[in-house]
Amino acid sequence: MFPKGGNHIAEQAKKHHLHIELTQKQYRRLTEQAKACGLSKRADLVRLMEGNPIRAKPSQEIKDLRWEVHKIGVNINQIARSVNAGIARAEDARRGLFLLDQVYELMYEVAKK
Question: Domain span at residue 71?
């Protein structure tokens, strides 16, 4: 809490500049970590100091996998709706199982890397 009469907004607006020296190895690690998270070096350091978790951006392979799983999930949902409506055929069930196998195969391929 701020003392009575204190100006919270003015307190937030105060900024402090800090000069630090890093070894080449430290600077390279900071640069790589910030890039992996999609942050500037400054933002990366601030998140570390604030104790916020820093997660690397997903790779293009993971993004592609998510998209494939999403498309397969849409197809499986369509099959489920046809089953619930009583209009599903045996071929629909086989297709659903095939799609589910594709999901497992994609996940297995990514997991073993």
Answer: 60-111
Q: What are the distances in angstroms from CA 95 to CA 65, 66, 80?
A: 20, 20, 11
Q: Which residues contact 34 (CB under 8 A, 6 or more apart)?
A: 40, 41, 43, 44
Per the listing, tokens 């993971």 go with 62
48 and 68 both lie in a single domain: no
Per-residue pLDDT of 3-32, as tens digits, reads: 555 555 666 678 888 888 999 999 999 999
Q: Report the b/e string of 55-87 with b at 16+ CB within 10 A.
A: eeeeeeeeeebeeeeeebeeebeebeeeeeeee
